[in-house]
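Long-time lurker. I teach an intro course on protein structure, and each term I like to show students one example going from raw sequence to a predicted 3D structure in token notation. This year I'd like something fresh instead of my usual example. Would anyone be willing to generate the tokens for the chain below so I can use it in lecture? Attribution to the forum is fine with me.
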Amino acid sequence: MAKLDVLLEELVTANRILAREGVVDSFGHVTMRHPDHPDRFIMSRARAPDCIEASDFITFTLDGTPLDAGDRKPYLERFIHGALYEARPDVMSVVHNHSPSVIPFGVTGCKLRPLLHMCASMGHNIGTWDSQDKFGDTDLPTTTTFASSYSRPDLIPRET
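-- Reply from a regular --
Happy to contribute to a lecture. Here you go:
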């Protein structure tokens, strides 16, 4: 089995495990940087992560352009993944989710605080980042500015 095929099977497994463990919901997903082309990443078509199969994967350029989508509909959040891969060449995989445990901190103004020693790398002041503050009301992808400032998990992007 070729290296890419093995990694695609691992990506299938990652999507399914994270879905079954409740880390990603029906709209969450895991991507990986293409092992042979660092200027590309691989993401499944828009499909619930616990149903993902290797044939669901699409290769994208870092600006989110699908290279081999065919009739498969891509996730809109691919722009977030691409911006992170572009800003952080050391990142090899990205997980995007809509965690019911975290979303309230992004929309209510209540501060998220690290409570365990394992959270020390988050720091004490975990802020939120709202694209509307920077760009106003827009349908344009606004993730590049967020991704370029994202050096550790110290911001929670607010999604509306």
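Some talking points for your students: The radius of gyration is 16 Å. The first strand starts at residue 29 and ends at 33.
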